[in-house]
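Example record for the data management plan.
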Amino acid sequence: MNKDTRGQGTGQGPRVGLFVTCLVDLMRPAVGFAAVKLLEDAGCTVDVPTQTCCGQPAFNSGFWDEARPCAERFLRVFKDAEVIVSPSGSCTTMVRVFYPELMASGPAHDEAVAVGKRTFELSEFLVRVMGLTDVGAAFPHSVTYHASCHGLRELKLRDEPLRLLRGVKGLKLVDMLRSEECCGFGGTFATKFESISVAMGESKCESVAVTGAEYVTAIDPSCLMHVQGILGRRKDRARTIHLASILASEA
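Corresponding structural encoding:
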């Protein structure tokens, strides 16, 4: 995405700092633009500051000293944001749940706690903060939903993405067996334990295939990247699509 851009919105909602995340910024920029559209349509004014890594890869691998400068920079970049929204459950979890732990012994602890409290995953923000379940989207396809681990287990997001999907015109939502089962990505887990990661991904893709859905969606682009790789190798019918891209679709 272009950096240092500002959306117009209507000014009726909060001023949102969009945390695009590394993966979206570098590999799935369309998800970021979809998020901007959704937030502006909800009445928010959207700022997209120069993006920064939240430090999650280093943190999850045990390199906390290397992750801490990333967290400190994130706090500087978003210090003036009224609300911070991200199209990623895992990165939102890093900021809200793990920053206070990472910064526990330093002078930035209180700021980390405060920033975490005003950081939201996109579907969480739309439903819980803005009170939306119908964003005016149209997507005439069959879709199944994968509940990614951080969103489900750390942020406690279970129904919010589903409520938004049910509000999409023409969308047929197909239940997936074991939808809450991990896809096997897990960040650096996928490289450290490749065979286990692939086996978990194969199991997830089997669950997707059984639904017969055209698309599988989730709130985390990293999960979708992993699943898409396995689906493509298997030459399965389903394709991956981020929740934000569905919600930004119009007839």
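Summary line stored alongside the record: The two ends are 25 Å apart (CA to CA).
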